Amino acid sequence: LLAFVADRVVVLDQGRIVESGLAADVLSSPAQEVTERLVLSVPVPNPLLQARRRELRSRRLVADGGAVDR
After folding, report:
1. 19-44: string of b/e by CB count within 10 Å (b at 16+)?
2. What is the C-alpha to C-alpha distance for residues 15 and 11, in angstroms, rounded to an integer?
3. Residue pLDDT, tens place only, 30-57
4. CB count, 10 Å around CB of 57?
5. CA 42 to chain CA mean position, Å
6. Segment (H or E) for 13
7. pTM higher than the cut 0.85
8. DSSP bridge pairs for 20
9. HSE on the CB side for 69, CA within 13 Å?
10. Among 21, 20, 61, which residue's Cα sits nearest to residue 37?
11. What are the angstrom distances between the C-alpha of 1 and each of 4, 19, 44, 70?
């Protein structure tokens, strides 16, 4: 949806710009971990794809030492 609303995006982490660029580029291949987390947090209507994204999000949280949210 974001790519339909904006041509360019800026991702902030604690008030600092960590990534910016064309919306389609940033969303399709995020360069920063915080951007990847944001992209993975968006729900999708396909249950199989949503399950895969939930698994990726959980792996990322475990790798970072965080709690798993299911």
Report:
1. bebebeebbeebeeeebbbbbbeeee
2. 9
3. 999 899 888 888 888 888 988 888 888 7
4. 18
5. 7
6. strand 8-13
7. no
8. 10
9. 8
10. 61
11. 5, 18, 11, 24
